[in-house]
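Worked example

This section walks through a single chain of length 229. The input is the sequence exactly as stored; nothing has been trimmed or padded.
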Amino acid sequence: MNNETHIQNNTALIFAGGNAPLPHLSQFLPPAQWKIAADSGLDHALSLGVTPDVVVGDSDSVSDAALALARSLNIAFISAPTDKDFTDTELALSHAVDLGAHRIIVVSAGGGRFDHAHGLLTALFHPEWAHIHIEAFIDTAHVFVLHGPSSLQISGEKNSLVALHAMNGMAHGISTEGMRWQLNNESLAPWVSRGVSNELTGSTGEISVQSGALLVVQPEAFTQNTHES
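Given that input, the structure is written out below as tokens.
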């Protein structure tokens, strides 16, 4: 099995809900073994030409047209009650983990309710999922989850923005390469903004963290200029 096939066979795409359109993300979606829609993420997946294998959630915000099409295509449904302790996206993440995914990419249009947006980001950092490579495409942003000790290589246009945010408490032993403002074995707290608005000095960069969890964001990764290049 070549590396590309291995990655495809261990990747899950999760389509989350949201109010804004997201056609610009279609060209960035990688091949995936599992395609999961979280509730109204079904509408977004179908709008991108993706047929999910399963829809997870309470289906309270899916359009009637998407539901009808899903049933005509015999897409499976894993139903959940409307009154529950987990968001539909969190249930979809759990399902991807249960399937054995080594890489999970959450695709979200962004927008919508702020509490849902915050819930999405915090769900990505579940400590029990630290062994899984998790990232997200959220509107124009490319988001990465980094649990220490580990490192991450990113790519982008020179001078493009990169932000680092500590999650789940303090993050220690953070070092960067290829950034305008370098960090050298330093710490970040969740309540400080020191890691915001850093920049790539070239086309690649590297971030490492020894302990704790780090949210890495390229906020303009999927802008109009990106898809024209």
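What to look for: The chain has two domains: 3-139, 146-228.
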